[in-house]
Every structure is written in structure tokens, then in C-alpha cells.
Amino acid sequence: MPSMTSVKYTNKKVKKILLICGIAVAAAALVATGIYLVVRNGVFYKKEDTAGNSYSMTAEMKAVMTESDLHKGYMFSRTTKLLAEDRSTDPWVLSWYMLPGTTRTVPAMESAYVDTFDQILLLESYIEEGKRTKAESLIRAIDSSLTDGSGYLLSFRKADDLITSDRTKEEHNDSLEEQSYLLLTDPPVSMKATTRYLRALLDFYDKWGSKKTLEKIEKLADLVFGADGKKSYRAADRAAKPTPIPVTEKSLVTPVPEDEADKDEKSGNILIGIDGTELSAMDLDAMRRAAVLFPKYQEKYEAVLKTVKGGKISTELPLYAWLCTGEGKYTYYTGSTGDVELLPSLYVMVYLAETGNLDTDGYAWISEKIYNGGYLYTSYNMMSGEAASATEAMDAYPLVMYLAMIKGDDNLFTLTYQAMMRHYATLSTSPALYTFYRDLDDSRYAVYARENLLMELILK
Q1: Average pLDDT of the residues of the chain
Q2: CB environment 349-381: b (16+ within 10 A), e (fewer)
Q3: Distance (Å, rounded) from C-alpha 39 to C-alpha 33?
Q4: SS3 at position 233
Q5: Fewer CB near the terminus (10 Å): N or C of the chain?
Q6: Does residue 375 register a pLDDT over 80?
Q7: What DSSP line would sit under 20-68, residue for residue?
């Protein structure tokens, strides 16, 4: 039988061994974690140069924002809370949320759709803020749920098809939805979302880099540059007729094959689907950067740039066509009254400005609308150049502010910012507090993801 002294000595020895082993295990774990973080953050990976551009506010622009009621730090969190967290749709943001009225008979409403372009803007915000885990999670979600299987991004998905768990839902309102979505049985490919996704991945690569991300960019670039003649859809009141005489510099011919126009009996709308290059879907700066990484795309990029620049309607109305359906053949409008939608043209202007290709006509035209009227509307008539809609284009103002930033135009930025701030919620009891809202009929208000996410990116 061993003595008590030897037992005590043995226990001390065992404890010492266990302590040493514990320290060794902890050290090994620490080293492994360090190696993982080094590899994950690409410390030893030599990133390729994507020649990305960055535009910042001037001192005067920053002063305008600082002196206003804007609480930028809360805008993004309030937007995602209202459109994702409170809707139980994480990681997705819904397109819009309508605030409840003052009585129970006026309930809150929410969009039935997840718009893919909005999710890309959300991803860009995560990347800009350095939220890598959030960005990677959303990339995985986009790849698994918002693609057509070949890698092109879809235009939208119904929220109920993405969120299978039980959640409390508000009522829907079809009048606030993108009308083409209501007329489509299955979500089509969106080149607008696909090329914007290319931009987001390039930004992700610039910030964190990795061979895997670079390979992903090349695969997506193959799809973008190889997408000749994708079908685009737009709702119109009825099939447009060719204009018999030239109204501006070009004859306004809008071919709408009858077998490609489907009428919705309830709304009277017609869904028009045409194969071609949608000008506002060509994120030229993303394509330019992809061509810098992979020179094999350079010739195709130059051809796309030429197509986009050639879509300007005229010097009198320097907005842009919807589609190019063949060399020199453009579709300018899809209604019956010759009205051109403003937002697609503004995206074209932004993408041209980012690549140094925006002419003075377009910038002067949009500046004049802000300087003289202070309002932008959703559509403008091709013949008169006057507003063809009484609906204010809320998501146009952030794009004009961005144009002003690119140009270093303090005056245009200030006036456009003030126009945007007309719709900034400051009521402390409002669920929309610190977000931008839209005025609707019957004194109702709705918060849309689009302009709030654009403002988050622009006022970074």
C-alpha cells in the first residue's frame, strides 16, 4: 500500500501534466484560429487590381447633410428592421411596407415580393460597412434562392416561397407592387440584378480578396458578357403603335409582337416581353472592371458601351431607350402615349458617368428639372418633354445625388438632398422613424427598400 505522501505527489504530478496539456491545446487552438483568420482575410493572397472607382462627398456636401435632421447612423438599421426583422424575412428585405393608419380599419400592409435588385443593394451595404459575415451569408442565400440555376439572377421571388417558417404577415396591396410581377407566373432572369451582382462581388473582392471570389467573378462575367438577346418585361396600358412622323431626331417605333403581349383583364395592363439588351441593366463600370481583370471581355465591353450610348433619344430629350433589339434598333417606350420612364434612364446616366461617358445633354436636362421645379416624376412625354405622371420618383433623387457627387456639383447635390429630405420621417412615435417614405393616396405612407438602401450607399 503506497504512503499518503506518494499519493499526494502523484496527484500533483498529474495536475501539472494536465495543466501543461491544457495550455498546449489552447495554444494550438489559438494558432489554428490565427491561421484561419490569416487565410480567410487573404493576408498572403495577392489581389488583382479591378481599377475600381470611388466617389465621395465634398466638404460642402457633408456640411449640408450634417446640418440637416438626418440620423444616418439609424437609417440602415431602421430600414432593415422594418423590412426584414419585423417582417420575419431575414436575410431578405421586402420591397415595401405601408404604415398602419390611425384607426384599426386602416391596417398595415406589406409587399408580397422580394426584389432581387434590393438584395444586391443590401449586399453592397454590408460590404461597404465591412460586415463580412453578413455579406457572405447573403451571397450564399442569393446563390441558392435567387438564381435560375445557370447563374443568372431572377427578377424577384415571392416572399412566401422563400420563407417557409410560420410568420405573422400583413395584408398585401397589388397596386403598390411592380406591375410586371403580377402579370408573370414565374420570375424571369434580371440582367439588371445580374450585372449589379457582378459589381457587388468585385467590391467584395477588393475588400477581402480570395481566389475563390475571383473565380466566381469570372463565371458571372462569362454570363454577363454572353447574354445576348435576353428577354425583358414591362407592363404597359396597351400595345404601343409606331409613331407616323419623327417627333425628335429619331422615328419612334416600338415593335411589340402581338404574340408576346399578354393582357391582364383586371388591370387592363399588357405584359410586354422583348428580346434585346436592356440599357439600364448594363452596369458599365462593373463590366469595365471585369474587363480589366479579364482582358478577353474588353472588346465586348466596348460594344456594349457603344450600344448604351447610342440609345439616347435626342438632344431635346436626352433620356434613353428601354431596349436595343438589334444594331441601331431601339425600343423607346411601351405605353400608348409615348411616355418614357425616368428611372431606367437615370441608371443609364449613372453608369455612363462612372465610366466617363455621360454627355452634357443628359446631365443638363436632369439638373434643369431640379433647379427649376424641385421635383422628379416617374415618366416624361417624348414629344413635350414634360412630366407625364403626377407620381414623384422618390428613388430618382439618390441617383441624381450620386451623379452630383461624381461631378463634384455642390449645388445640384444640395437641392436634390433637400428634395429627398421632404420625405424623411422624424416623428418619434412613427415606426418609419429615420427612414425615407413615400406619400400614397388617402394620406397613407410607405417605406420602400430601394431609396433607403441607395441613400445608405451614397451617404457612406
Answers
A1: 88
A2: bbbbbbbeebeeebbebbbebbeeeeebbbbbb
A3: 10
A4: strand
A5: N
A6: yes
A7: HHHHHHHHHHHHHHHHHHHHHTTTT--PPP---------HHHHHHHHTS
Q: What gap in Å lies between CA 151 and CA 217, rounded to an integer?
A: 11
pLDDT band at 229 (very low <50, low <70, confident <90, very high): confident
| Residues contacting 387, CB < 8 A, separation 6+ | 377, 379, 380, 381
Q: Evaluate whether 284 touches 357 at the Cβ level (below 8 Å).
A: yes
Question: Given a cut of 70, is residue 70 above it in pLDDT?
Answer: yes
Shortest CA distance to 308 belongs to which of 371, 339, 262, 351? Answer: 351
Residue 144, classed as helix, strand or coil, is helix
Beta carbons of 454 and 395 less than 8 angstroms apart: yes
Q: Give the cell for residue 275.
A: 428580346
Distance in Å from the first CA to the final CA of the chain? 76
Closest CA to 157 of 95, 199, 79, 99: 95
CA 129 to chain centre: 16
β-pairing verdict for 231-236 and 261-263: unpaired
Amino acid letter, residue 324: C
pTM of the predicted structure, to 2 decimals: 0.87
Q: Compute the distance between CA of residue 143 and CA of residue 149 in angstroms, rounded to an integer.
A: 9
Among 16-25, 183-192, 212-221, whose mean pLDDT is lowest? 16-25
Answer whether 346's CB lies under 8 Å from 397's CB. no
